[in-house]
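Hi all, posting the design record for the shared folder.

TITLE: backbone redesign
STEP: 1 of 1
STRUCTURE INPUT:
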């Protein structure tokens, strides 16, 4: 099955109402065909409904996180049920900023992915190694362990996109070379093949994240196992449209 190119915009903790409206206007005016690329933008929680109401209907919206199980006495959290109730189809889970700053473990991320899927959300699940781990030669062991923690809890991968985001390339301006990205994506696909199943390995989209921008996207997009991007800072700028267009 052909894997449709996927471009996500992770706006992180950025934006005002005016800025959000401006970005959405740029996206709405972009000449992009959803036949070739699936586009999902992820604003902070407070802007989700605004973005959903203004955004063209062929682009979709993702939350940047959700609680690990049913809502209740969990101050400050937002549940998967709430996102579903608001008509938000996607959620990003396990971003390295949350893994590092909020101590989200592999197991916790796996539980969150499984719970979000069980409630009907689609999940962009993030994995990736630190610079220290890369330099010590443990990149594959780290991303395999992160993926295994998800695979242990998830049987149906239809609604999962795996985002490989090397931590050393996030917010640093350093981007993995196309060869580095391809190597990890290819190994991940092999890991899925051996540990989850051939069909899933062939169909799951593995997208790259980490300082993707309008200048480097085309070459990265040309790699056979790079099925799209999760874009940070550049997703707040007009160049996000160029990144979306790198699909063609
Ligand atoms: C980045 O590119 O900075 C990201 O974290 C994308 O999620």
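Okay, here is what came back for every position:
SEQUENCE:
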């Amino acid at each position: 099955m052909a894997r449709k190119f996927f471009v996500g915009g992770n706006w992180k903790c950025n934006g005002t109402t005016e800025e959000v409206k401006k970005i959405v206007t740029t996206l709405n005016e972009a000449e992009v065909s959803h036949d070739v690329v699936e586009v999902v933008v992820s604003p902070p929680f407070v802007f989700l409904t605004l973005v959903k109401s203004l955004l063209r209907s062929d682009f979709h919206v993702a939350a940047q996180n959700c609680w690990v199980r049913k809502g209740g006495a969990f101050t400050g959290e937002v549940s998967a049920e709430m996102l579903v109730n608001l008509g938000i189809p996607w959620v990003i889970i396990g971003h390295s900023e949350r893994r590092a700053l909020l101590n989200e473990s592999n197991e916790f991320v796996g539980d969150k992915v499984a719970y979000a899927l069980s409630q009907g959300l689609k999940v962009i699940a993030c994995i990736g190694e630190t610079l220290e781990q890369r330099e010590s030669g443990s990149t594959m062991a780290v991303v395999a362990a992160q993926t295994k923690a998800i695979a242990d809890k998830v049987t149906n991968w239809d609604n999962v996109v795996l985002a490989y985001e090397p931590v050393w390339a996030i917010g640093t301006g350093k981007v993995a070379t196309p060869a580095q990205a391809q190597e990890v994506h290819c190994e991940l696909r092999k890991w899925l093949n051996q540990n989850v199943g051939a069909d899933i390995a062939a169909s799951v989209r593995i997208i790259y994240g980490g300082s993707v921008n309008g200048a480097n996207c085309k070459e990265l997009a040309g790699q056979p196992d790079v099925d799209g991007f999760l874009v940070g800072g550049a997703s707040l700028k007009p160049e996000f449209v160029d990144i979306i267009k790198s699909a063609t």
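COMMENT: The chain has one domain: 5-245.
Let me know if anyone wants the other runs.
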